[in-house]
């Protein structure tokens, strides 16, 4: 198993083009966002392609100014089959991104936590395109012109804590995506937790994990910014669960809530995991070869 990086690409042309080779291709959008082409399926996860948070927090303690430009426009994602939103924080369920994306792809489906279904509707997801899901549930879908089989399994996440509503719907989710002979795990925002670990043990065989590594601290938490894994904790998961390849994310977009890529590389190198862990660059294509 290897994850090979190609040159910086025209993401719109790649996204709209014919299927690539067997395996998976992906591009990082910044923060927790990814474009995935798996088999004939085109899947978008947690896209934040606007400045809606900068508008929301202008003049506040954390102004949410972008450190990197959006690598693609929502309107260019006009071949999308599925959009996966892990939770309702704006950088994962963006009212500045979803309406344009869904206008361009009116046959796509948005998979989101059932807990946050009303938020998704309020942020521009048409009801006929919204599918709610809860932890430990799976969806078997056929998408695209070729009817590519895709299985989506929701896994609980812990954005500092596991939170559920009065009827048991999880506020934070991760997704295991199976398509084209490849299994991909994106936990959304999370810290390590025994419930997550129990599910990962029961659902083995992750070819590619996408893990958030911006860490957490009392200052951010005290100002309404829950955190994520540290790089060290993410690398513990890589070793413990035997992920084939791992891509780090959730850094480099907001100055107050990031991690230094040089520090991340040093931690990966110190563990001897440079062949299995990628520190991605936005706008660059990566190809998972089995």
Briefly say what this structure is.
This protein is an alpha/beta fold. The chain has helices spanning 11-16, 52-56, 98-104, 117-122, 194-202, 218-222, 231-241, 261-271, and strands at 2-8, 24-30, 33-38, 41-45, 82-84, 109-113, 130-133, 138-143, 148-156, 173-179, 182-186, 208-212, 245-249, 277-278, 284-289. It has a single domain (22-272), classed as Metallo-beta-lactamase, Chain A (4-Layer Sandwich).
How would you characterize the overall build of this protein?
The protein has 290 residues and is of the alpha/beta class. It has one domain: Metallo-beta-lactamase, Chain A (4-Layer Sandwich), CATH 3.60.15.10. It contains eight helices and 15 strands. The strands form two sheets. The chain has an eight-stranded mixed sheet. The chain has a seven-stranded mixed sheet with strand order 8-9-10-11-12-13-14. The model has no long low-confidence stretch (mean pLDDT 95).
Shape: globular
Topology-level CATH name = Metallo-beta-lactamase, Chain A
What amount of the residues lies in strands?
25-35%
DSSP summary: helix tally: 8
Mean pLDDT: 95
- Please tell me the total number of domains: 1
- Strand tally, please? 15
Strand sequence of the main sheet, in spatial order?
1-15-2-3-4-5-6-7
Low-confidence stretches: none
Helical amount among residues, as a percent range?
10-25%
Q: By CATH's scheme, which homologous superfamily applies?
A: Ribonuclease Z/Hydroxyacylglutathione hydrolase-like
Based on the coordinates given, report the CATH architecture.
Answer: 4-Layer Sandwich
Q: Quick one: biggest sheet?
A: 8 strands, mixed
> What class do helices, strands and sheet pairing give?
alpha/beta
Name of the CATH class: Alpha Beta
Question: Termini distance?
Answer: 5 Å
**CA-atom Rg in angstroms:** 17 Å
Q: Please trace the helix and strand order, writing H or E for each element.
A: EHEEEHEHEHEEEEEHEHHEHEE
